[in-house]
Specification:
alpha/beta; Rossmann fold; about 30% helix
């Protein structure tokens, strides 16, 4: 896939999803660099809002890409620097989005390659695969690992997420950008 255009369309909190075009949803734990990775893929620095504290994304944000697809920034799960009630509302929002009956949807599960998959990551991956959703695993922050550490991290991810299509990538160095776009497109 070659990105020629990308614009923010709207953010939602559980109503009125855009379903007129195929979706690629980006999901992952808070603080894995999901929004930064999306900006790297879209070749735009600040289109997808990023934050230094976990839990910045508090709604489902739709970006129209090439006037043919939506890239969907889904709030992060797990730790977020927000009150428990708000965190629970975000978890419900995530489940709502993932359960929408969309005919054409892919999910990019963004992991921190340094930390590896959490039990929540494994659960999300397994649930999506069991529901027949195409899942691409983006092992982000790979630039923080040495050559041997990269090999070891990829083995851990492959063992915990069987049959996953794993793309090692970095928002900082753009490693894996084109491979990930090719998987999405």
């Amino acid at each position: 896939m070659n990105i020629t255009s990308a614009v923010f369309v709207k953010g939602i909190r559980g109503t009125d999803p855009l379903v007129d075009m195929p979706h690629t949803g980006f999901i992952g734990r808070s603080n894995v660099g999901k929004s930064s990775l999306m900006n790297t893929l879209l070749s735009q620095k600040d289109l997808v809002k990023t934050g230094k504290t976990p839990g910045k994304t508090q709604e489902i944000n739709f970006f129209l890409v090439n006037k043919k697809y939506y890239f969907v920034d889904v709030p992060g799960y797990g730790f977020a620097n927000i009150p428990l009630v708000e965190r629970q509302a975000l978890e419900k929002l995530i489940v709502w989005y993932l359960s929408l009956p969309l005919p054409q949807r892919k999910i990019v599960l963004v992991l921190d390659a340094v930390v590896g998959p959490s039990p929540q990551d494994v659960e999300v991956y397994t649930t999506l695969k069991n529901d027949g959703v195409e899942v691409i695993v983006a092992a982000n922050k790979i630039d923080k690992l040495s050559g041997n550490e990269k090999v070891a991290a990829m083995k851990v991810i492959a063992n915990l997420l069987p049959q996953a299509h794993i793309v090692p990538c970095s928002s900082k160095t753009k490693e894996g950008r084109q491979e990930l776009l090719d998987c999405i497109g």
